[in-house]
Each structure stands twice: as C-alpha cells, then as structure tokens.
Amino acid sequence: MNVIKKWLEIFLVSFRLGLTSFGGPAAHLAYFREEYIKRRKWLDERSFADLIALCQFLPGPASSQVGISIGMVRGGIFGGVISWIGFTLPSVVALVIFAYIVESGDVVDSSWIHGLKLVAVAVVAQAIIGMGKKLTPDKQRVTIAVAAAIATLLVPTATAQLVIIGIAAIGGYLLYRSEEIEEVPNLPINISKKLGVISWTIFFSLLLLLPLGREFFSSISYAIFDTFYRVGSLVFGGGHVVLPMLEREVVPNGWLSEEMFLTGYAAAQAVPGPLFTLSAFLGGAIGGWEIALIAVLGIFLPSFLLLIGALPFWNTIRSLPFAQGALKGVNAAVVGILLAALYNPVFTSAVLSGVDFAIVLVAFSLLYYWKWPAWLIVILTALLGSLATIIS
C-alpha cells in the first residue's frame, strides 16, 4: 500500500474512533480491539495485549498511547502522530468551543450522551470476553485476572494498579518460567534504538529543564507548556487520575476558578476520546485557542517521547524467556483491571435503571452475537437512550 494511502487510512480510522469512542479508557481499548484487531487485523491479539501492557507501565493516557503505538506500528512515527491527531481532534475542537460558550456543565445531562454511555458497557463487555478467551486460557491466569479485578475494586488508585501489574508479572514469571518459549510475531517497528535513546534523553531533559526555564521566561505560553508537560510526564493511570494534579496546577495559580475547572471536567465527560483533552478546555479558558493548542501539545508530548524510546526495544524484551512468563501474568491482570473498570466507572455511571440495562442487553446482543458494526450500535443506542429519557 502506498505510504500516503496508508497514512490517510490511519487518520480516517482513528478520526472515526475519535468521534464515537465514549466511555473512558476501558471503552477506548474495546473500540480499538474491534476496529484494529478484529476488523482490520493490523495486529494479532497477543501483540495488542502486549502493547496494552507496555502502555500500562508508562505514565500518561494509556488508551491514547495504545492508539499512538498502533499508528507507529502501521505507519512509523508519522503514523503515530496521525493516529493521535485523528483520535483526539474531535474532543479537542469540541472542548475549545466549550471553553468559549459553556458556562455550566448541564450539557453532560443530555439524553443522547446517556445513551452513548450505555453502549460503552456493551463494548467493554464484549472486549473482555474476547480478550479473556485469548489471555486467560487456564485456571492460573483466570485466578490472576479475578484477583486483579478484586484488588482494583478494593483499592481503585493508579498506584495500586501499578502494584497489581507488578505482582502479576512476578506471578506470571514464577508460574510459566519453565514453559517452552513461545515464538511471538515481531511488531514492524521502524524506529532505531539510537533514536529511542535520544527520545528518552529529550524526555528527561525537558522534565528537568523546563521548570528551571520559568525563572528566565515569564510568558504564559511557556508556563502553560511546562505545567502540562509535567502533568503528562508524571501521571500514572491516566483518565480521572490527571484531574487532581491539573486542579492543583491551574486553580492555585489563579489561571482559572474552581467553578470553571469543574465546568471543564463536566464538559470533558460529554465528549468522546481521551480525558486528557480536558487540557484543551483549560487552555482555551485561560487564553484562547492558541493556549489550548500549547496545553494539548504539552500534555501529550511525553507520551510520544516515551513510546519512541520504548518501542524499538519492545520486540527484544517481549521475546525473552523471563519476559514471556511475566507478560502472561500482566496480560491476565489487564483483563482483570478491565473487568473492574466494566463495573466502575463504566457500568455504575451508565446503568441507572432497568430500562438502561435492557438497552445494554440489546446493544451487547447485536454486537456480540449478530456482529453489527460498533458505529451502527453507537447510533442506535444513542437514539434508544434519548427515547428512554423522554418516555421516563
């Protein structure tokens, strides 16, 4: 395939996902699996799970990083950039507009938004079933997945999630260290290890030097870039974990009021795509679309530098005997963490009545058994959610 056509395909697919991927990180991964793995077969199931495992270990928005990684595997570094633009552009544009016109968060109560939350329940459930069949084929890995789900529900913090993944890696190594080494398909990563080292160097240099530069550069643009770069570099777990750190950065500085920050948070719940695009609303509210662009670039740049640094070494790491056993444990834990996310926040924030659950059952049946495309079910469920709200 011509490289231009390949890049265009990456953009169009990711843009469609950016328009329809409601429901948070767990739902994003489910949509990615449906589109990239099952439908287009850009990756095999094992490689997809290994990328999720890698991105769970890195700071930043894990689901966005998986999308960027798939773009890089498909079309090089520029493919990753295009994939990110496509996936984040719809929510960035929407939130910049919100920053100009929204004075309250009432928009998130729209009935069609509620319907889109319901379809996320069905999509995540289908993904967990599919991934569970591949990644938890024996009692040991089922046990790891269940234990990870329980631990995640009992201690729902980003730090606990990292600990759970670490323990699962150790457990996987101990359980499967004596097994014969599996031959895993190499990811076609066209990034040199030298460039990977340079990327890691740039990442840490910016993290250390940007705060020092604020002594010499007093512009709001510099301060915003430094602030959002630091947040994107230090937040593990992504999603809602980024909110308290952003609040501590923008409200005490006097850039935004607490009320405006919470309005932005509410607006971010109403749009598809990653919650990290809340940075677009905050930047837009602080200084217009130009500051919004700086904030978005600042918070996502660490993800690119980290992935460019890690991916060139990933094929080697994932093929090592000790790593294969550890990844079996980690992948099982990822299934468990997604299972926990299916309950909270995906199910608990969406299913508020028996009618809601009935809509979820319809969406799941059409998706899992009748094999309807996800985009069509998104439209149908949004309409059903609106109708149910009107009737009630």
TrEMBL record:
Organism superkingdom: Bacteria
Keyword line: Cell membrane, Membrane, Transmembrane, Transmembrane helix
InterPro entries: Chr_Tranpt_l_chain, Chromate_transpt
Chief localization: membrane
Keyword Transmembrane attributed: yes
Membrane topology: Multi-pass membrane protein
UniProt-listed PANTHER family: CHROMATE ION TRANSPORTER (EUROFUNG)
Family label: Belongs to the chromate ion transporter (CHR) (TC 2.A.51) family.
Name used for this protein in its record: Chromate efflux transporter
